[in-house]
Amino acid sequence: MIKIAEKTFLVTGAGTGIGYSIAQCLIASEARVVLHCNSHVEPAQKLASEAKTDCVVIQKDLSQPQAGQELVEEILNLGYSLDGVVNNAAIM
User: Fold this and answer.
1) Separation of alpha carbons 29 and 64, rounded Å
2) End-to-end CA distance of the chain
3) Are 40 and 11 in contact (CB under 8 A)?
4) In what order do the strands lie in the sheet with 55-59?
């Protein structure tokens, strides 16, 4: 099995549903998690505040063309390098 403790993951759409559950599992496995959400920010913030690992919430509307680049720049500005991405956001 792959060790994910201390690895850094981005989970898009982490405010509810599958993304939220995946983020919970990563946090429980001691991963560092960047929780992306556009709406449903409060559940993601609560999850991050209760985590025993390093977690951050970034709110972006990924339906906007520049938002993906901005998200990556924010992550890099935090000093993180990503080990994995869970692309779960629903884009309409």
Assistant:
1) 32
2) 35
3) no
4) 55-59, 32-37, 8-11, 84-86
pLDDT digits (tens, 9 = 90+) for 3-32: 899 999 999 999 999 999 999 999 999 999
Return the exposure string of 53-90: e unless at least 16 CB atoms fall within 10 Å of the residue's CB, then b. Answer: bbbbbbebebeeeebeeebeeebeeeebeeeeebebbe
Chain centre distance of CA 38: 11
Condensed to tens digits (0 to 9), the pLDDT of residues 32-62 reads 999 999 999 999 999 999 999 999 999 999 9
Which sequence spans correspond to the domains of the chain? 8-86
Domain boundaries 8-86, corresponding CATH code: 3.40.50.720
Q: Residue with structure tokens 């890099």?
A: 76
Name the β-bridge partners of 58: 36
Amino acid at 91: I
Q: Residue for token digits 């990924």? A: 62
